[in-house]
Amino acid sequence: MSVQGRAGPPEPLQWWDIEQLTELEQVLFPTDSPWSAAMFWAELAAGNHYVVTRSVEGNVLGYAGLSGGNDEQAEVQTIGVRPNAQGNGVGRALLRNLIAAAGDRAIFLDVRTDNAAAMALYSSERFTTIGLRRHYYQPSGADAFTMVRAADERAGTAHAMEEMT
Ligand SMILES: CC(C)(COP(=O)(O)OP(=O)(O)OC[C@H]1O[C@@H](n2cnc3c(N)ncnc32)[C@H](O)[C@@H]1OP(=O)(O)O)[C@@H](O)C(=O)NCCC(=O)NCCS
Description:
alpha+beta, 27% strand
């Protein structure tokens, strides 16, 4: 399937997408405890911000989710793009959607230390590495970097102005 130029914008995850997401998890994270359907259902039930990007045929090309966190911080829980759709800007569009959803909060995430593509994406969106978690991923035992994107001052200003009006 060629997907160049055929990805729609990120839109809310629907329950009927979950089966495709669990299949993608098996492909994208085979050695790092891929998420089950129950885990995605729990995220939906919690009202957390989850989005998907679909092809024109309606197939899920990518997905991403943000935990609710608190007033000051949120966490990227997951982000993945179907292998034959990678390299077309889907991952960046999904990440930018999460950044917008986080508003004026700082955003944390964990990434495998050998995941150069994901780290390049995060760095280009102003995430910086603040820590190392040894053997964070299981059962692979792979290490993770913790990265953070500082609270967006401009989003904070916009938010404050919205509250004043
Ligand atoms: C990481 C991932 C989500 C990126 O999604 P994508 O749609 O392929 O990425 P994009 O096309 O939007 O590219 C955005 C940036 O990512 C980086 N990137 C993407 N693929 C890359 C590669 N193969 N090598 C190096 N950098 C890469 C680049 O900085 C790129 O920006 P550029 O196009 O201006 O150079 C995707 O590769 C993926 O699903 N990987 C497997 C699952 C995964 O590792 N998820 C992250 C867990 S923390």
